[in-house]
Amino acid sequence: NWWKLNRKLKNSLGIVITRFHKPIIFTAGPIMQLSLQTFVG
């Protein structure tokens, strides 16, 4: 029973990760570039 629950949780977690993966890239990309520019400059 616990194993089934764990599998369900992992599947839902994977769906959430794939759903929020692109927005994270779109928001983290510019922030990373900005921090890199300030660090180098």
Automatic annotation (TrEMBL):
Membrane topology: Multi-pass membrane protein
Keyword DNA damage: no
The organism of origin for this protein: Bracon brevicornis
Keyword terms: Membrane, Olfaction, Receptor, Sensory transduction, Transducer, Transmembrane, Transmembrane helix
Keyword Heme: no
Protein name: Uncharacterized protein
Listed InterPro entries: 7tm6_olfct_rcpt
Domain of life: Eukaryota
Subcellular location: Membrane
